[in-house]
Amino acid sequence: MSLVKLQNVTKVYRTDGIAFPALDDISLSVEAGEFLSIAGPSGSGKTTALNLIGCLDKPTGGAIFLDDVDIGAGNSSELANIRRHKIGFIFQTFNLVPILTAFENVELPLILKGDMGKAERRALVEEILVDVGLKELMNRRPSRMSGGQQQRVAAARALVKKPRLILADEPTANLDSKTGEEVLDLMLQLNRKSGVTFIFSTHDKMVMDYARRLILLKDGRIAADEQREPRRQARDNGAAGSGGPHVDAS
Amino acid sequence: MLTLLKLAFRNIFRFKRRTIITFCSVSVGLALLIITVCLMNGIDKQSIGNIINCQTSHLKIFKTGYFAKKDEVPMNLTISDPDRICALIKNIPGVAAVEGRVLFGAGLIMGMDELPCLGVAIQPGLDPGLFNIKESLSAGEWLEPGDAKLLVGKNLAHDIGLSVGDTVTLRMITSPDKEDFSWNALELEVKGIFESGNPTVDSGQVFIPLARAQEALAMPSAVTEIAVRLDSDDENKIAAVQRKIQEALKPGKEGLEVYTWKDLAGLFLVISEMKTKRSAMIILIMLVIASMGIINTMMMAVLERTREIGMLAALGMKKWEIMKLFIFEGGFIGIIGSLTGCVLGGLAGWYLQVHGWSLASMGESIKKMSAAVYPVKDVFYAEVSVDVLIMVFLFGTAISILASVYPAWKAARLDPVEALRHI
User: Fold this and answer.
1) What are phi and psi of A199, to 5 degrees?
2) CB burial class (10 A; 0-12, 13-18, 19+) of residue B58?
3) Cβ contact (<8 Å) for B317 and A112?
4) Which of B43, B132, B146, B244 is the most buried (most CB within 10 A)?
5) Which residues have a Cβ under 8 Å from the Cβ of A220 and sit 6 or more positions away?
6) How many Å apart are CA A51 and CA A126, to the nearest integer?
7) How far does A87 lie from chain B, in Å, by closest CA?
8) What is the pairing mode between strands A4-15 and A61-66?
9) Residue B400 · residue B338 · CB < 8 Å
10) What is the CB-side half-sphere exposure of residue A181 using CA atoms within 13 A?
11) Considering CB atoms only, which of A56, A93, A111 is closest to B416?
12) Side-chain-side CA neighbours of residue A182 (13 Å)
């Protein structure tokens, strides 16, 4: 059973009566545990695909299944519930709540999920902050953190609720290459440690190099979909915790 | 819920200067509302006290038809056997004191000057049990039943140049009818000057002993009114005693009518209500302006935090939760603004309750205008009540919450995709 399945999905945006097709008859399946990158030039439909898979938007045609549930048929409240329980997001611009500390930002999805007591939440948040190497900075607000640290908090926030799927939209675009690499290392380690599925949208070659599957979009269509040996392996920077799998240095 | 409240509370401090300006607009608006309401309540209380204590007592009994013509001060509609009526009423539970009086049109003549006034013939032994003229004496002494003397209001005495011990001519109109106009005159010594605090009384009334007036007006033993004082100011009790007196007077047979102080002070009550409504309108406009401030603040917040709203939606926050977040923010601004407003307004109201608001420095024309509307002399005292503070607090909070509904609705309606794309 595929985690995500797109069947003949189209998405057309209309502005002033003029139709702009963003995705044109896309079909693909994503299995649980994949580390997948959707790449392509600007306007190719990467972010649209991510928004559709992330239940932030609905397709104009076709069907999208998440765990065999047709998410295109859900209303806004049902889609919010799916996002709340099954999907984590990492954004290009981090999108942390500036008035909350790192700890509180990471705790927020758990509060929204609402199935945990305070002590349990605290333990889980601290554990994930150790995993991303930010335990010491947990009481800092985002404004007092570097871009890389903020993106680590965003990754922790996406992962803390143990989602089935994490969608990362251009996660390295606002980071320098060294920090971007560190963040990708972390995500790969988290993918290996927890088995959570990662789907990236990117046009960053470094992100593509980390992916085990690369889907290339062009003009809203799939131009290529290839399984590949990752050209980069996660370096063990000690951030993913001692419980993680052994990772070879590249 | 707690998280939303916590988040909302922290959010209001994101833009401190803007929040403070919004707080201030709410606080100042509500403080002014409290001051106005407390002042209006205080003035009404003072006015009603002065009307009851100086002019109307709680109830008055007139000959049928007198009330309709009372402004003409008719002398032919009299109660011929007041002692019997007073005896009937005295024993009714709740009645504290009863007094037969004669009101007559009069003129106070000093040399070549004459000032029109209202003559009030009282029973000096009974009157202090109903009215406060005796305790308002600022000079001279109280009347004795057989005195050929009078008491004059301070303003009237000042206007005509009278002092205690002066002799003055009192022209007493025995028939105000145009076809049959007649009057009598008495030479009387000014025995006392009173300052009751009720400008109508202090500027236009003289008091003489009842026996002297009855003799001069050729109406032995008759009175034009019987004033009744009760042991309580309670509206319901006044109405109940009114009914009992009406029953005791055997409707129709005695040819008498009973009126409450409200009937007698009708014009004041109408003017007071009009003023309250006008003040309420002005305050409402101020609060609409304050609520515009909240709407503006919240709309700015929605605009500035559009991407954050998209992120919260991506985390799984539902539309109504986003809406609640912004309504809570408006609510917090309302609660803090209203609390501050209540404290400021309450303190200012308390100051005005203790020290009053003096019209002394505002010039004679303002004082005269005020005296024409309110039977209160120069200093207005506010009346602060917890009820008003609670009402205003709830009102301010409710207005703030209502003002946040539209921005919150706008935030909740944002498309997450568009919101996340927002720069």
Assistant:
1) -125, 120
2) buried
3) yes
4) B43
5) A11, A21, A22, A23, A24, A26, A44, A45, A48
6) 29
7) 8
8) antiparallel
9) yes
10) 13
11) A56
12) 17
Chain B closest-CA separation from residue A94 CA (Å): 9
User: Which of A14, A46, A99, A159 to probe the B interface (max B CBs under 10 A)?
Assistant: A99
What pTM did the predictor assign?
0.75
**Chosen from B19, B320, B420 to mutate, greatest number of chain A CBs within 10 A:** B420
Phi-psi region of A17 (alpha: psi -120 to 50; beta: other; left: phi over 0): left
Question: A97 and B314 in contact by Cβ < 8 A?
Answer: no
SS3 B234: coil
pLDDT 10s digits, B217-256: 888 889 999 999 999 889 899 999 999 998 888 766 778 9
| Residue whose token pair is 């709410």 | B26
pLDDT band at A240 (very low <50, low <70, confident <90, very high): very low
Q: Name residues 121-180 of chain A within 8 A of B (Cβ).
A: 157
Radius of gyration of chain B (CA): 31
Q: A47 — alpha (psi -120 to 50), left (phi > 0) or beta?
A: alpha
Q: What totals of helices (H) and strands (E) does chain A contain, helices first?
A: 7, 10
- Nearest Cα of chain B lies from the Cα of A9 at a distance, in angstroms, of 18
Asked if the C-beta of A75 comes within 8 angstroms of chain B's C-beta atoms, the answer is no
Of residues B57, B52, B100, B59, the one with CA closest to residue B241: B59
- Say whether residue A60 is in contact with chain B using an 8 A CB cutoff: no
DSSP label at residue B55: I
Q: Which two tokens stand for residue B201?
A: 């009384």
Helix spans in A92-196 (H):
102-113, 118-131, 147-159, 177-194
Residue A113 to residue A84: CA distance in whole angstroms: 6
Extents of the domains making up chain B = 2-50+268-421, 59-232
Q: Does residue B3 sit at the A interface (CB-CB below 8 Å)?
A: yes
- State whether A80 and B318 contact (CB < 8 Å): yes
Contact B315 A108 (CB under 8 A): yes
**Closest by alpha carbon to A84, among A183, A148, A165, A202?**
A165
All structural domains of chain A = 32-51+75-227 (3.40.50.300)
Residue of B127, B139, B118, B141 lying closest to B193 (CA atoms): B139
Does A118 touch chain B if contact means CB atoms closer than 8 Å? Answer: no
Q: At what angle do helices B386-413 and B16-51 cross, to 10 degrees?
A: 150
Rounded to the nearest angstrom, the minimum Cα separation between B413 and chain A is 11
Question: Do B3 and A108 count as a contact with CB atoms less than 8 A apart?
Answer: yes
Instruction: Report whether pLDDT(A249) > 80.
Output: no
What one-character DSSP code corresponds to residue B415? -
B295 to chain A, closest Cα gap in Å: 22
Give residue B220's Cα distance to chain centre. Answer: 38
Cβ distance of A56 and B315 shorter than 8 Å:
no
Tens of pLDDT, residue by residue over B348-393, are 999 999 999 887 777 777 777 776 677 777 788 999 999 999 999 9
- Sequence letter at residue B266: G
